[in-house]
Backbone:
């Protein structure tokens, strides 16, 4: 009978991950036979990592990732963040990705409010007040163009973050999802969906 090289649990035929610890199974698992009397006296090992332990270590069960990676990936699309909350409520992996999607949605809305409504309205008001001073009107026009460029850059950065998060979720394997470069630590700190 094959056993996991990491935790010693018996391995099911054809599985890619150990059911007890989530370690990827090599092509050549450790094969040993366990004495029948010793096997009967040992308590059965849990198939999945307990939720509290997974939450404390920041890992997910291999089964959680494999079963919910599509919903988790779709949750990173800002307006689809709610999908895992409806389809796979018990998945920590999907909920964490839904949280990221909600953060991205808030980022898009804040970008739109600030750079498409508030700042242009303030600049238009200032331009109307200073209509007689040509130099300041020209300067404020340049500032409004820069504000538009900043808005586009922020939008592109958010789009890139969504794409990277989607890719990281859909390609996740094992028990630990890869952390998103640059913004990964920030996203872990912002917990809106728990």
Residues:
């Amino acid at each position: 009978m094959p056993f996991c090289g990491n935790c010693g649990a018996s391995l099911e035929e054809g599985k890619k991950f150990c059911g007890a610890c989530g370690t990827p199974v090599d092509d050549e698992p450790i094969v040993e036979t366990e004495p029948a009397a010793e096997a009967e006296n040992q308590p059965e090992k849990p198939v999945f990592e307990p939720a509290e332990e997974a939450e404390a270590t920041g890992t997910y069960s291999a089964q959680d990732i494999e079963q919910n990676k599509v919903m988790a990936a779709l949750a990173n699309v800002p307006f689809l963040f709610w999908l895992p909350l409806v389809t796979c409520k018990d998945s920590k992996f999907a909920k964490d990705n839904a949280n990221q999607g909600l953060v991205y949605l808030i980022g898009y809305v804040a970008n739109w409010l600030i750079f498409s409504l508030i700042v242009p309205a303030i600049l238009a008001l200032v331009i109307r007040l200073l209509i007689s001073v040509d130099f300041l009107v020209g300067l404020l026009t340049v500032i409004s163009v820069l504000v538009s460029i900043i808005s586009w850059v922020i939008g592109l950065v958010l789009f890139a973050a969504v794409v990277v998060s989607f890719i990281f979720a859909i390609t996740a394997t094992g028990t630990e999802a890869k952390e998103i470069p640059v913004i990964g630590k920030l996203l872990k700190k912002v917990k809106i969906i728990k």
